[in-house]
Amino acid sequence: MEPWKHERYEDTHFSRRYNYAYNCEYQTVKDSSTLLLRKGDIVKFGSGYYEVLNDWKSWFIKDQEDKKKFWQRDIRIPYYAQNNYAIVVNRYRWLKYKYRKFMDYGAVIMMITGNNIGHIRKYYSHSRPFLVKAAYPYYEKIVLTKPFEKNGNHLFLSDFNLTTFIYDLQNNYGDTEKARDLFLEKMCFLLGVKL
Fold this sequence. Notes:
This protein is α+β, with helices and mostly antiparallel strands and 195 residues long. Helices cover 18% and strands 35% of the residues.
């Protein structure tokens, strides 16, 4: 099933802390302009380290690779995602029925640069290790690494003009969830992602 399609299922989770089972429900969230992260938004992961040297080492160590030896690792960012870009393919929430109803929200992202192009992963909203770099439809200037290429104001992917494709989607469908789903489908096709 494509990750941008909507799904819903029920499950049972077990709380080790309080030693009881509770029912929960997984739901994808319909795209809305009120969401902070939306389908098609491009995000960038950090370096995978907490880049802080507050002691005497910061006076003497100037090389970035040498500094990395003293930085603490940020385990939320996998090695394959370090300094790479991803795209938001869906939003979800877990409804947890404990002594009252709890809701945990998150985002489903897919890697679009680096060695693991097409790898899909879920992140809860409160523990996001990435920053939003460009919101769909990318009217502002964005800088993406390979396999993307920039020519003037147009973004290309394997000899396909993504900018023109996005403008056509905007003209035909507006800023709707269907336009974003068609864009994500085309991105997966161009990147060679098999779902």
